[in-house]
Amino acid sequence: MKKAQGLPLETIVIIIMALVLLVVAIGFFTGSFSSLAGSTKALISPTSDADIIAAQNTCTQLCLQAGRVTTVAEFKRTSYCKRVFKFDLNGDGNITDSGNNEQGIMASCVADGDEYVCCRESPIGVPCNVNMPTGQVSESSC
To answer: pLDDT tens for residues 3-29?
Structure first.
């Protein structure tokens, strides 16, 4: 009788582990896990000082971009006025959906308790004054 030939069990296990690792690596490098990681972070971690500083930097840039508009109506439509940031300021580990889309843009910036914060509101509190032909407009015009 001839002896049967085949792959040893250890080789099969190593091949399966390599395939699983390959699938995970492809998912990581294509960004497939980014939405999972972002939603998990929003639900688990309370807002840190680094999150607030990053939001302040973003709002400062948005105010600079808003400086290019020439009317109050255009200013009200800028990302400075409409952008909201999801913060867990009360530390309960939960941020409820307030009807915002994925980019955090609202038709008008209305804060929702301690969870959705606009550029002009605490703890971000970035002022924005824009000089226009008709006069100066500020964040209170949003």
So the answer is: 666 778 888 888 888 888 888 777 777
